[in-house]
Amino acid sequence: MALQTRTFFHEPTSTFSYVVADTAARRAAIIDPVLDYNAAAGHTATASVQAMVTYVRECNFSLEWVLETHAHADHLSAAQFVRRELGGKIALGEGICAVQRHFKSLYNLEEGFIPDGRQFDHLFRDGETFRIGKLDARVMATPGHTSDSVTYVIGEAAFVGDTLFMPDSGTARCDFPGGDAGRLYDSIRRILSLPEATRLCVCHDYAPGGREHQNETTVAEQKHANIHVHDGVSREEFMKLRTARDKTLSVPVLLLPAIQVNIRAGALPECEGNGIAYLKIPLNAPLSKE
Question: What is the mean pLDDT of residues 201-229?
Fold first, then answer.
């Protein structure tokens, strides 16, 4: 098996994106690409994701998939840009429909926005398999952080999105709409049931204590050292810890701009009559769970 993984780091949002390739077949997938967004100026740019596009072209890979681990709340997806430049199908878990229903109501989106996932090229079911070239890949539904969170198991690697961080950073928050600490615990135990040598590739690292940013750990390391959910932590203990911690966290700076783009598979709102597209920010509206 000719699995190759290349990591790209988006420093403004502490996000890791990945190119996963079958180097023998020259086929690839991009996972969680990031669109540059200057919130103060209301400007988007593609300089960061362009590095991924350039890499895929230089390697002479054919892009088959643009894979999202969930509808992110901390950055805007560059999936549409990637597809325009390289092709490929934009896909994520079928739990996106619940996320779309909630946020269609919050943003009071137009009637033409149908919350059934049709904005994406493919919605994965739990346990569904697919291929990148000749690489076998499997989808694990891992809700808890959000209802649409998935993990992609590709060869000896698993791309876990926000479900797990590096062991010294713990786990994802569960206070977003559709979040649930008990479901997150169950999802993490599924991930940690993979072989202990499985490489776990995370979507974010905030480098606690000023250490170097890191993007990869293993099942064995998480089971031994994750500060929130190492072996021996019960479901009830985790739920109590996670719920208490979430009460101390601020709303992510880019949540309201990002979600309305990401539930559209990374598409910006259509331009209005003056040729300008607008994002909507609901004022004084509760970001309640579903």
Answer: 96
CA–CA–CA angle 137, 141, 143 (5° rounding): 145
What is the C-alpha separation between 19 and 15, in angstroms, rounded?
14
Contacts of 127 (CB under 8 A, 6+ apart): 138, 139, 140, 141
Query: Is residue 288 pLDDT above 90, yes or no?
Result: no
**Average pLDDT score over residue span 237-265:** 96
Q: What is the rounded average pLDDT of the residues 212-228?
A: 98
Using 50, 70 and 90 to split pLDDT, how confident is the model at 142?
very high
Residue 75 pLDDT: 97
Alpha-carbon distance 129 to 271, whole Å?
37
What are the angstrom distances between the C-alpha of 246 and each of 145, 180, 221, 239?
A: 11, 11, 24, 10
The predicted structure's pLDDT at residue 287 = 77
| CA 36/CA 76 separation, integer angstroms | 7
For residue 2, CA distances in Å to 20, 53, 135 come to 10, 20, 8
Answer whether residue 258 shows pLDDT above 90. Answer: yes
- Count the helices and strands in the chain (H runs, E runs): 7, 15
Tell me the CATH class for 3-257: alpha beta
Amino acid at 147: S
Output the average pLDDT for the chain.
96
Strand order across the beta sheet in which 199-202 lies: 129-132, 135-141, 150-154, 157-161, 199-202, 216-218
Q: Which residues contact 102 (CB under 8 A, 6 or more apart)?
A: 177, 178, 290
Domain ranges for the chain = 3-257
Q: What pLDDT is stored for residue 1 in this prediction?
A: 57
Give 122's DSSP letter: E
3-state secondary structure of 66: strand
Distance in angstroms (rounded) separating the CA atoms of residues 164 and 20: 19
